[in-house]
Amino acid sequence: MKKNFITALVAISSITFTGASLAQDTISAVGSSSVTPLMETFGEVYSKAHPEIFVEVQGPGSSAGVKAAKSNTADLGMASRELKDSEKEPELVAKVIARDGIAVVVNPNNEVKELTSQQIQEIYKGEIKNWKEVGGADKPIVAITRDTASGTRGAFEDIMDLKQKVNGQKVSAISQHAQVANGNGALKTSVASNPYAIGYISLGTVDQSVKALAVDKTEATISNVKNGSYKVARPFLVLYKGQPNARTTEFLQWMESKEAQQLVDEKGYISIH
C-alpha cells in the first residue's frame, strides 16, 4: 500500500514538473489593427524558434496601444502613426519596426483610376459628392472612414490635411456623413461590396477585392513608398515604457533582425533596413 502511494506521488510530481517545463511566458502586444497582422506573423515565427514564448496580440486601435504602453497593461503597445505631442512622455519609447503606405481604395468595377490629394480631401470633407465630379459614373460617392481611435485614420488625416480648428482645438474635418468601419478588414469588405464606395487601408492588406488608386499621379506601391514619391505613408511603431523585461527585450531585438525584416517585405510592408 505504502509502495503504491509513493509511486503515485512520483507520477504526480512527474506530471507537475512536465507541465511546468511546457509552460509558456506570454508577451502581450496591444494596439493598431494595421500592425496586428504583422505582429501576429512575428509572434508565430518567433514562438517556433522559442517555444517557451507566446506572443498574444490584440488590435483595438493605435490610441489603445499608446495607453496600454503608458500604463504598462501590455508589454508592448502598437501604433500605426506618429505619436501626438500630447501622448509623448520621457520614458515612453517608440521604435519603428516597419513602414507602410496607406492605399486609397475603391471597388474594382469603379472606372476611376487616380485622384489628387485635393480631390480626396474634398471627398472626405463632403464637398465632392458624386463620382462624375472626378471622372467617374453619375453616382453618389460613399465615403468610408475609420473610427477615431484608428492610427490609420490619424495618419490619413494628417497627410491629407483633414484637420480643422474648433474652439482652439484640432478636430477631424472628415464629414459626419462618412460611414465608419472598425478595422482594415471591415473597411476593405465594405468597399469590395459597394461599387461606389471609397476608403483607405494599409497598403500591405490590399488584395484583388479592392483597387488602389494612384494619388497625385503616383501609384500606391512599396517601391514608391521607399523612394518617397508616394506620400501617403506612415510608420509602424512598437511602444514601451521604462525598461522591458528580458523576454520582451529579446523579442524587440529580434524584430529588427534580418530574419524579421524579411518577413516585413514578404507581407507587403516596407522593411526598415
UniProtKB/TrEMBL annotation:
The keyword Transcription is assigned to this record: no
Residue stretches making up the PBP domain: 22-259
Signal peptide: 1-23
Cellular-component GO terms for this entry: extracellular region; periplasmic space
Compartments where found: Periplasm; Secreted
Domain of life: Bacteria
Keywords: Periplasm, Phosphate transport, Secreted, Signal, Transport
Keyword Ligase: no
Pfam families in the cross-refs: PBP_like_2
GO BP annotations, alphabetical order: cell adhesion; phosphate ion transport
Primary location group: periplasm
Molecular functions per Gene Ontology: phosphate ion binding
Family assignment from sequence similarity: Belongs to the PstS family.
PANTHER family documented for this protein: PERIPLASMIC PHOSPHATE BINDING COMPONENT OF PHOSPHATE ABC TRANSPORTER (PTHR30570), PHOSPHATE-BINDING PROTEIN PSTS (PTHR30570:SF1)
Its biological purpose: Involved in the system for phosphate transport across the cytoplasmic membrane.
Name used for this protein in its record: Phosphate-binding protein
Organism whose genome encodes this protein: Vibrio astriarenae
Record lineage: Bacteria, Pseudomonadati, Pseudomonadota, Gammaproteobacteria, Vibrionales
Gene transcribed to yield this protein: pstS
